[in-house]
Every structure is written in structure tokens, then in C-alpha cells.
Amino acid sequence: MGFRCGIVGLPNVGKSTIFNALTAAAIDAENYPFCTIEPNVGVVAVPDERLDRLADLVNTRNKVPTQMEFVDIAGLVKGASQGEGLGNQFLGHIRQVDAILHVVRCFEDDNIVHVDGSIDPLRDLEVITMELVMADLDTVEKRLTKAKNQAKSGEKKFLAEAGFLEKIQQILDEGQPARKAVPENDTQEILLRELCLLTTKPVLYVANVSEEDLAGGNPFVDRLRAQAETEGASVVTIAGGIEQELSLLDIEEQREFLAEMGMEEPGLNRLIHAGYDLLGLITYFTVGEKETKAWTITRGTSAPGAAGKIHSDFERGFIRAEVIAYEDYIACGSEAAARDKGLMRSEGKEYIVKDGDCILFRFNV
Questions:
Q1: What whole-number distance in Å separates Cα of residue 328 and Cα of residue 315?
Q2: Which of 54, 154, 232, 252 is deepest in the core (most CB within 10 A)?
Q3: What does the alpha-carbon distance between residue 115 and residue 281 come to, in Å, rounded to a whole number?
Q4: d(CA 104, CA 203)
Q5: CA angle 302, 306, 309 (to 5 degrees)
Q6: Mind listing the pLDDT tens digit for each residue in 47-106?
Q7: Rounded to the nearest 5 degrees, what angle is found at the Cα of 16, between the Cα atoms of 72 and 84?
């Protein structure tokens, strides 16, 4: 697995409610700030009907979906980068995730207190963003001081490092995320990765709305979408309360509930897939009567790299990958039929795995 999404936002925006629905973990979701001190972690199966169809087709004994890890990080507040509300501890938790799901409150409810007394998604978004920027600025300034001292020797690599750090510092000083600092070479890319800056992580905005606004949205969601577009980010609309109810039902009850609500699938399925897309991930399958399994890889992974997800021996001793496209596998009804029709391809080390590929790896160690 190895892919983690951190759920962040101000207190009382619905982070823990959405986490509960994602994981059916039934953690506390109280109506007061900082009810989540230590981050709650949940592993979630990524819904994929392709896996279901393949498993049914071969009558597999064990079906294993791919998974993502979600981390519910306590509500940040203004001043978190300076330690307000246990902020330094919470910001440290964010450093450990691969992507950020930023939950923004887009509903009004007099019974749920907002830390700033009113609903304003853009203000809330700016508070969180600026705290992440300020934390990154502190990190960059410390590294820049070190680089400048080292650059006094006249060594070119330290002069270059200081120059790139100054570029990042300027971006952060303007209140912009560090992801806008595009590395121009491998050295800069490695440095940016080593810094582990919060604002280089990809962000998906989650608009938490009331049940009444789920279908048509509301002005709060419209404003959030407009802002997200300027950042090249996406917005997923979720009614956290409904999703938590759904998570407590069995499959048949969920279908009935969704039909009554006029929904095709739980909103959280969309959220999981959006998080999957955000990280640039794809799925390939290994198919058999004993086990049919979905595997997560980064888009652009070669066949040996994909084989290494199963076991390092598969990558080290890779010979070839026998590949059937998902659509061809379903159309043919079996691996043997696909082979007979010439739809099973033999691919070598240079092959880039595609989403939905059904693969049998040949290796020798």
C-alpha cells in the first residue's frame, strides 16, 4: 500500500465524521475543538467493480482490493505554525502523508460551533493554507541559513542550493505554496524532496455540506470551487452525516438508502477515487482461482517495478509480463480464451503498465 492521505481542516468542520464514514471506525466526533489529539489512522479498501467482475469470472477463493490509508489529523487553528492549539505537533503529522484532503465546512448549523463564529469557506481555507506556508517558511529559512554559511567556501553546489532556497523563500513570503517552485534539475528536485515541505503535497478540497445541499450545492460550495480552479485543484462534495449513516449499513441496506436518496454510489467512493487520482495512482490485477488481487502503482511504472510490488524477487528476476487488457479479459471470459485469440501480450522490461492490466509475471531468481 504505502499511500497516505491526511484529512485536515479547522476544528468542527466534519473531519472526524468523514473519517468515521470512510473507515467505519466510530471514533469520537465531538462538538468542541481538539477532540482529536493523536491522529486516527484507517485503512480503506478502494472500491473497484473491475476487481469484483474478474473475481466472479474466475470464481476466485480470495478477493483482495487495493487500499489507501487515511489519517484524521486534529483541527488546525490560526497560529498553529507558532504552536497554537498544539499546532506544531499536528503539523508534524501532516509531514508524514502523501496528499492532503482539506475538509471545508460549507453548511450552517447553529448546534455546531464554528471556531470563528461564522461560515466562510475561503477564510477557513486561507487560515489552513497560511499555517502550512508559515511552517514551510520556517523550514526553508533554517536550511537557507545553513546553505549560506556553507556557500562562504565558494563551492558551487552550496551557492546553487542557496539560490534555489531563496527562490522558494520568495514564493512562501508571497503566501504561495512551495509547489510553485518548479525544480530545474535533479539536484533541485532532490533538495525539494528532502525539505518535506507541507505545501508541496497535492491537495483535494472536500466540501462538507448538509443533506439538503448535496444535489445542488450552495453558494459556499460555488465559492470554494472557484478558488480551487485558480489553484488547479479539485473539489468533492460530501454530506458527512449521510455518509456516516451509510457506513453503518450492510450492502443491501446501503443500496436501498442510496436509491431513496437518488444517489448511484456513496459520496465517499468518489472521495476515495479522487484521492487515488490525486496521487497519480493506477491499478493492475493478478487473476486466478486461488486469489484475485488489485495492486496500486504510480502511473508510469514499468513492468519490473510493478512486479516488485508483489515481491522484490519478481523485480530482480523479471523475465517478462504476460498482459491482458481488462476489457479483453472480460470479453473473452478467461485467460485461456484471451490467449487463444491472441489477446495475451508478452511484454518486456520497457513496458509501462496501464490501468486495468491483468498481468502474469514470469521471473527467475
A1: 26
A2: 54
A3: 36
A4: 12
A5: 150
A6: 899 999 999 999 999 999 998 888 887 666 565 455 544 445 556 778 888 899 999 999
A7: 65
